[in-house]
C-alpha cells in the first residue's frame, strides 16, 4: 500500500572512521520495520558532492513503496583509498540492514555517478548480497579504458597546480552538492508521494555546513587525465570483466541483478562503461535503460511525473520509469 503520510527526514551517525559519518534517512511513521531499505551513495567523482543531493524521483519511488531511503556520506579521495571507501560502504550497508533494530532487512543499493562505485564494491566484497543494484549514470569500475586513456576525454587538461591544495586537506566527507538544484526537500512531495505542485526550490539555501570548495571536483578531471584513479581504488575494484574465468558461473549466481540508467550522450561517464559491464553480467543479471541524447545525471532534478521530450520526440524519463518497473520485478516477493 502506498504511503499516505508526510515524508520525514532524520540524520544519524552510522560510523566513526577518523571523523563521524552521517546519513539522512527519509521515511514515515507508518513504514514497516522489516521491509526493504534503499541505500544511496551520492555523486561527485569520489571527491565532492553531498548526501543532501538525492533525485526526487528516487525519493518518490521509495516513499510510495514504504522503503526507507538512506543517503549516506563517505570519506573522499585522496585522503582515503579504496579500502577506506569499502570500510565506509560496509558501515552504511550494516546500518541499512539493521535499520529499526531489524537485523535481516533486504537492502537495494544504488548510487549516482561515482557513488555507484560504492554500491559495486558492496556487491563484490560483502555478504549477504544486496537485493538489487541501481546505477544512475554510475561508475561500476575504474578498470575500464575510459578511465585509463586520457585521449578519450575532452581536450582541456587540469594541472597539478590547480588541485594540489585539495590533496593535502584533512579527511572529509562531501559537504557541497554538485548542483544546488539537486538538493532534495521533503516538502517537495505530497503525503502520497506525488509531486507537490506548490513547491518551489528557488531561493532555498542548502544547510549552512555545506561550505566545501566546489572546485574540489577538479580532482576528478585531473585524475582522469593522469589515468590515476585505478591506483587509488585498485585494492577493491575487480574490474568490468570480473566474471571471466573458472568461477564465472558461481560469481554470477551470487551477483544481484543490476539496473543501469544512463543518457546516451553522457560525457562524464562514457555509456560504454556501463554497457560493457552489463554485457559481462549478461541479460539475466543486467538491465540497461538508456535515455536518448541525454547527458550525465539527466534526471537529477526530475520527479516521476515530469516529462522531458528530446528532438526525436522521446521522453527521457521513460528510461527512469522503465528502470523502476524492472526494479519492482526484481525485488517482488517470490
From TrEMBL:
Protein's UniProt keywords contain Hydrolase: yes
GO MF: hydrolase activity
UniProt keyword terms in alphabetical order: Hydrolase
Domain Alpha/beta hydrolase fold-3 as annotated: residue spans: 39-138
A Pfam family assignment: Abhydrolase_3
Highest taxon of the lineage: Eukaryota
Name listed for the protein in its UniProt record: Alpha/Beta hydrolase protein
Amino acid at each position: 500500500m502506498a504511503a499516505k503520510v508526510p515524508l520525514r527526514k532524520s540524520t544519524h551517525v552510522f560510523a566513526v572512521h577518523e571523523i563521524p559519518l552521517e546519513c539522512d534517512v527519509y521515511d514515515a511513521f507508518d513504514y514497516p520495520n522489516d521491509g526493504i531499505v534503499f541505500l544511496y551513495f551520492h555523486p561527485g567523482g569520489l571527491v565532492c558532492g553531498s548526501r543532501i543531493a538525492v533525485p526526487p524521483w528516487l525519493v518518490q519511488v521509495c516513499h510510495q513503496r514504504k522503503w526507507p531511503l538512506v543517503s549516506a556520506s563517505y570519506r573522499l579521495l585522496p585522503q582515503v583509498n579504496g579500502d577506506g571507501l569499502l570500510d565506509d560502504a560496509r558501515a552504511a550497508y550494516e546500518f541499512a540492514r539493521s535499520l529499526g533494530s531489524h537485523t535481516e532487512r533486504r537492502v537495494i543499493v544504488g548510487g549516482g555517478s561515482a557513488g555507484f562505485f560504492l554500491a559495486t564494491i558492496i556487491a563484490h566484497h560483502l555478504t549477504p548480497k544486496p537485493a538489487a543494484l541501481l546505477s544512475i549514470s554510475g561508475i561500476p569500475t575504474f578498470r575500464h579504458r575510459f578511465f585509463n586513456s586520457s585521449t578519450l576525454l575532452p581536450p582541456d587538461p587540469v594541472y597539478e597546480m590547480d588541485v594540489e591544495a585539495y590533496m593535502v586537506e584533512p579527511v572529509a566527507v562531501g559537504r557541497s552538492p554538485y548542483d544546488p538544484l539537486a538538493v532534495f526537500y521533503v516538502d517537495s512531495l505530497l503525503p502520497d508521494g506525488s509531486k507537490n505542485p506548490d513547491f518551489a526550490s528557488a531561493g532555498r539555501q542548502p544547510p549552512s555546513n555545506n561550505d566545501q570548495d566546489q572546485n574540489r571536483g577538479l580532482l576528478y578531471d585531473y585524475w582522469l587525465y593522469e589515468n590515476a584513479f585505478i591506483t587509488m581504488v585498485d585494492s577493491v575494484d575487480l574490474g568490468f570483466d570480473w566474471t571471466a574465468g573458472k568461477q564465472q558461473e558461481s560469481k554470477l549466481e551470487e551477483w544481484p541483478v543490476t539496473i543501469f540508467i544512463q543518457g546516451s550522450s553522457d560525457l562524464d561517464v562514457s555509456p560504454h562503461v556501463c554497457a560493457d559491464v552489463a554485457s559481462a553480467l549478461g541479460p539475466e543479471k543486467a538491465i540497461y535503460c538508456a535515455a536518448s541524447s541525454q547527458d550525465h545525471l539527466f534526471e537529477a532534478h526530475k520527479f516521476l511525473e515530469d516529462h522531458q521530450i528530446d528532438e526525436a520526440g522521446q521522453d527521457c524519463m521513460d528510461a527512469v520509469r522503465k528502470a523502476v518497473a524492472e526494479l519492482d520485478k526484481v525485488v517482488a516477493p517470490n
